[in-house]
Amino acid sequence: QVQLAESGGGLVHTGGSLRLSCAASGHTFSNFGMGWFRQAPGKEREFVTAISPSGTTTFYAESVKGRFTISRDNAKNTMYLQMNSLKPEDTAVYYCAARAPYYGGNSNYDPVNYDYWGQGTQVTVSS
To answer: Which residues of the chain have pLDDT under 50?
Structure first.
């Protein structure tokens, strides 16, 4: 079992920044591919970004490319999401997720391929 806990959400104005963290416990963090997903009210959960176990490969949704950066620190069992130039349409509950074994490619975009989920953290961007 892996326990995931997100933090860092909040309320910001358009153009602002936030940094989300996802702390993992209960298993060897460096074995897991990790991802961030988000869900806005009335919408399906959507892929935001993902990172390979070593951190060398990343994936981004087109809507966040150039604004968001995913990273991880395996020594600290923590993944991060730096969000810059935030827009009102980024408002959602953000979830971190873990998967093992890790596979590259498009499988990282589908939430059904992830085994463990955090409780989520709310991000609200005001216009």
So the answer is: none
Write down the pLDDT at residue 27. 83
DSSP-derived 3-state class of residue 56? coil
The CA distances from residue 63 to 29, 55, 117, in Å, are 28, 21, 22
> Do residues 82 and 101 lie in contact, with contact meaning Cβ atoms separated by under 8 Å?
no
Long-range contacts of 57-62 (CB under 8 A, 24+ apart): 57/104, 59/108, 59/109, 61/109
* 8 Å CB contact between 44 and 102: no
Q: How many CB atoms within 10 Å of residue 93? A: 18
pLDDT at residue 26, as a whole number: 85
Residue 39: both structure tokens together = 């869900």
Q: What is the pLDDT of residue 1?
A: 82
Q: How far apart are CA 113 and CA 97, in angstroms?
A: 10
Q: How high is the pLDDT of residue 104?
A: 87
C-alpha–C-alpha distance, residues 20 and 61, integer Å: 17
β-partners of residue 49 are: 36, 60
